[in-house]
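Hello Y.,

Per our agreement to keep a running log of every chain we model this quarter, I'm adding this entry. I've kept the format consistent with earlier entries: sequence first, then predicted structure.
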Amino acid sequence: MRHRRLRLCIGSLLLALAVLLAPISVVATWVNSEVTDTGRYEQTVSPLARDPAVQALVIDRVTDQVVDRIDVRKITDTLADTLAAHHAPRILVDAARSADEQLKGGLRTGVRYAVAKVVKSDAFAKAWDSINREAHTAATNALTGEGGVLEVRGDALTLNVGTVTEELQKQLFGVTLVGAESIPGADKPVVLVRNDHLSEAREAARWLGAVGPWLPVAVVVFAALGIWAAPSRRVGLMAVGIGVGVMMCGLLVALAVMRQICLDALPAAAQSQDAAAAAYDTLTRFLQQAVYAALLAALLTVIAAYLYGPGRGAVAVRSAMAGGADAAGRALARKGLKLGAVGQWLRTHRALNTGVVIGAGGLAVLLWNYPTPASVALVLLLVVVVLAILGVLAAAAGAEQR
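Predicted structure for the entry above:
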């Protein structure tokens, strides 16, 4: 009894550590991939240049900055003075002097049309991709607060219009005609997300990026040792599956809450809610994908552990699968399939073969660069198919001996 209690305490402690570290591991791996993998970072930020809400925000800001720098009053006064000097009718002179708003509106329409045509073009998207591909330091800059396309300034995540526009000139004309420092509005970055705790989140992201590669290994080691130490390994496997699943659900809820906090922190009159939402969803979509993959893997772990238990449903499923494999094996034996020593080995070592196949499937998911729900489902399908084939072959060997 003492030995059992000791194993229960040690196993519970190790499993608890694995479960608590699981969501931190997912977040840390995501941060690490965004900082160290140029291709992954480019995939993350590339859709922002093609998002209608972000395009609309850039178009509005650039149009406002260009039009605000044009002295419309000077233009109308010059026009009125010229008309007066040429003895134009008084009504025309007065109309020219009072045409400020009409001229400004026309300028705004023309500038907006030109800016929109450029921003929605392939050249703008290519410029955006080129910046993020050739200067992957932008990913690090977003976490460290240094200069770049995406930059953290205090409590705001900003987009540097000058850098994007400078690269856009290279895409359109092959050269930089106007430097970033001479572009209107280049010194006023577009605020995408504002939050009072962004600086603290940035510091946490740095720390997670440093320990990211090691946390998944720690989770697997703690879980394996906890399952091995538990008095009932099947119960330990179910416990870690349920625990990780619950933590992944909690992480999804936390991401949704953080999204709403970021959107609520924006001044509605000055910022674009749609652009901020698009930026948040785009930048975190791979993190959400990884969370769903981990949640699916945890669910499959619980189901597998249950199917190896004494429950009525588990016994019925195992019986049905065994019956199907036996029927298929007998049919192959009647067709003349001869497996010899190989078949005998498969029949004798069924448990070992099952464990090796399931373990190989789990290892494949762990070693997958960026696992997704689709990749987890694919590995599951392959494991089931291989187990089914091995079961049929083992049954065929048994029918051959009879």
